[in-house]
């Protein structure tokens, strides 16, 4: 409730076949959002609670020796699912975080030298507490770049939070979605068909130039230490096409690009140290940057 923008961005990522990093304090329904999406799309769902002692094999799986059969058998980890919730991903050290890299980029994983394909679709929703909280590890830049978007989940408004209280009082429990009104509305074939429609959305040359201008400006800005890579531009193309399709258009407009730019860029750039210490946020810098780019007609 009250997170319409967050829901829209999550749906954009699903249609664009990309991963999402959800950042926010505990208790604001990040897990509920992902579980609800999986249930409404008839997709398999697994959750991994990231902790400081989590090992890579706890995520991808391992080969176990069966003495009766005198052979090794694969015990698949929770990564073999269609929607994976990596809960509090920044609570575990980088070595374990990197276990997701191959899976997120290649949609496959390697166990003891053998490669195994992951289900289709395979989408990672990773939740992250704000980095200044005690006991967290910054995500490696290479891993952050694999996320299509970084979505900020904020506190609900007063009336929305009151409605959450009322729903809880009337019996709604986030842990018991099977008892709620959330029902599957599309199957895997339907999701594939929607993605095909997204791929067919037209994006004209002036829009591509607009996207390039935003990405290039991030590399030239005095306030940014290092800017976005070409992967950010590809993410803008994929996401703007998905957003256009969601709004019943077969062509991308500059507003589609502009609306999603900050969410796509905020985790791909780093501010200069002196800018950061002034209390200026990356969102403020990126908003000013995007607004400074002439919008094509």
Brief rundown of the structure:
The chain is an alpha/beta fold and 297 residues long. 42% of the residues lie in helices and 18% in strands.
Helix content: 40-55%
**Which stretches are low in confidence, meaning pLDDT under 50 for 5 or more residues running?**
none
Structural class computed from helices and strand pairing: alpha/beta
> What's the end-to-end separation, in Å?
36 Å
- What is the spatial order of strands in the main beta sheet? 2-5-8-1-9
Tell me how many strands there are.
11
Main sheet overview:
5 strands, parallel
Spatial shape: globular
Report mean pLDDT, rounded to a whole number: 89
* H/E element sequence: HEHEHEEEHHEEEHEHHHEHHEHH
The rounded Rg comes to 20 Å
Topology (SSEs and partners):
Blueprint (H helix, E strand, L loop, with lengths): L3 H13 L2 E5 L6 H11 L4 E5 L6 H5 E6 L4 E6 L6 E5 L6 H4 L3 H6 L1 E4 L2 E4 L5 E6 L12 H4 L2 E6 L5 H12 L18 H12 L5 H16 L3 E3 L3 H17 L7 H12 L4 E2 L1 H4 L5 H10 L6
Parallel strand pairs: 1-8, 1-9, 2-5, 5-8
Antiparallel strand pairs: 3-4, 6-7, 10-11
Helix pairs in contact: 1-10, 8-10, 9-10, 9-11, 10-11, 11-13
């Amino acid at each position: 409730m009250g997170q319409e923008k967050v829901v829209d961005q999550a749906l954009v990522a699903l249609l664009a076949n990309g991963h999402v990093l959800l950042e926010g304090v505990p208790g604001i329904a990040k897990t509920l959002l992902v579980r609800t999406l999986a249930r409404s799309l008839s997709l398999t769902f697994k959750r991994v609670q990231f902790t400081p002692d989590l090992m890579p094999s706890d995520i991808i799986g391992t080969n176990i020796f069966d003495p009766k059969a005198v052979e090794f058998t694969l015990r698949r980890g929770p990564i073999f699912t269609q929607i994976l919730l990596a809960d509090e991903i920044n609570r575990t050290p980088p070595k374990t975080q990197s276990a997701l890299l191959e899976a997120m980029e290649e949609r496959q994983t390697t166990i003891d030298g053998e490669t195994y394909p992951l289900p289709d679709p395979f989408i990672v929703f990773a939740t992250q507490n704000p980095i200044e909280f005690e006991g967290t590890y910054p995500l490696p830049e290479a891993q952050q770049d694999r996320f299509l978007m970084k979505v900020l989940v904020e506190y609900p408004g007063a009336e929305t939070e009151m409605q959450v209280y009322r729903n809880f009082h009337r019996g709604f429990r986030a842990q018991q979605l099977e008892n709620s009104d959330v029902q599957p509305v599309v199957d895997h074939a339907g999701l594939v068909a929607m993605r095909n429609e997204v791929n067919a959305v037209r994006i004209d040359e002036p829009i591509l130039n607009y996207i390039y201008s935003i990405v290039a400006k991030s590399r030239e800005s005095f306030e940014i230490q290092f800017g976005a890579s070409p992967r950010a531009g590809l993410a803008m193309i994929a996401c703007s096409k998905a957003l256009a399709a969601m709004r019943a258009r077969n062509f991308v407009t500059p507003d589609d690009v502009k609306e999603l730019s900050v969410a796509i860029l905020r985790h791909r750039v780093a501010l200069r140290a002196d800018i950061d210490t002034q209390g200026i946020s990356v969102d403020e810098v990126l908003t000013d940057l995007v607004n400074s780019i002439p919008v094509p007609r």
